Amino acid sequence: MRLKDIFYTAASPAVAVTTFDYLTTSDVVQLSAIVGLGLAFNLFSMHQAQKKNALPDKSKNIRDKSLPYYDVDLSKLSELRKKWQILKNELPDDVELYVSDNRKANGFAFNRGIYLTTPLINELDMDKLEYVIRHEYSHIKNNDTYLLSVPFSLNAGCLILSFNPYLSGQGMLYLTYLAACFSGVFLTNPWLSRRFEYRADQEALQGSENLKSAVSALKKIHSINSVHDIFSGKVNSKTSSTFSTHPTLKERVNNLKRQFC
C-alpha cells in the first residue's frame, strides 16, 4: 500500500474521530474492536474466495477450449488467446483471463482473474482489448478491491459509535460527527474508486503505449453500453456524480491525453 493511498484511506475517518476528546477509553476500545472485526471479516472473505478460486456466474477460462463458448465470435476468441499468450509473459503466472457471459460490454477484475464480457470481445479489436486487460490487471496489482474495503470498515465503525449516549447529547457536535461519518461511508469509497480508475487507465496506457487505441476502447465501450442503457430504461448521465464509482468518459479521456502529452 502506497503512502498516498494510506492518506486517502484515513482522511475521512480522521475527520469523524475529531471528537475523540469527548470519548472515554472504553469508547475508543469499542471503536477499535468494531473496525478491527470489520476489516478482518472483509479480508478473510476475500481471501477465502481467492483460495477457493471462486468464479462469477457464467464465466469460463480462456484456456478451456470446449464448446459452447457463449455467444463469442470464435475467430475473435482465437485471436484473443494468441494475444493473451503474449501478454502473459509480462504478468504473474497466477493471473488468468476469463470470458464472462453478460449483455454489457465490460471488463472487471475478481481475485486474480481478469474478466471480459462477450459483447466486449465481439466488438473490440485486439489493441483495444489489450488496453482493457492491462487496465484490469492494474486493479489486481494494486489490490484496489482490498484497499476499498478499508475506508468502508473504518467509517462504518465510526457510524456505529454514533449511538454512544454521551455523543447523542452533544447537539451541534453530534450532528457534525454524524455528517462526517455519513460522508465517509457514502463519499470516500466512490471518490477512492474514481482515483483507482484514473490510475488503472494511466498504467494501462503506459503498458500499451497506444493512446489512440486506449481512447477508442473507452469510447467504444461507452457507446455500446449507452445503447444498452437506453433500451433498459436507464438514464445515461453525462455529468460526474459525487457518488459515481467511475469518472465520466470525458474525464477519463482527458486524463489519458494529459499523461501522453
What labels would you give this structure?
65% helix, 10 helices, alpha+beta, single chain, elongated, 261 residues, 4 strands, four-stranded mixed β-sheet, 7% strand, disordered N terminus
Describe this structure in words.
The structure is a single chain. The chain has one domain. Strands 1-2-4-3 form a four-stranded mixed sheet. 26% of the residues are buried. Mean pLDDT is 77; it is low at 1-20 and 230-235. Helix 5 (126-141) crosses helix 9, helix 6 (144-161) runs antiparallel to helix 8 (172-208) and helix 9 (211-231) packs antiparallel against helix 10. The radius of gyration is 21 Å and the shape is elongated. It has helices spanning 3-16, 25-51, 74-87, 118-123, 126-141, 144-161, 165-168, 172-208, 211-231, 249-260; strands at residues 59-61, 96-100, 107-110, 113-117. The two termini are 28 Å apart. With 261 residues, it is of the alpha+beta class.
Task: Please outline the helices and strands.
Blueprint: H1 3-16, H2 25-51, E1 59-61, H3 74-87, E2 96-100, E3 107-110, E4 113-117, H4 118-123, H5 126-141, H6 144-161, H7 165-168, H8 172-208, H9 211-231, H10 249-260
Parallel strand pairs: 2-4
Antiparallel strand pairs: 1-2, 3-4
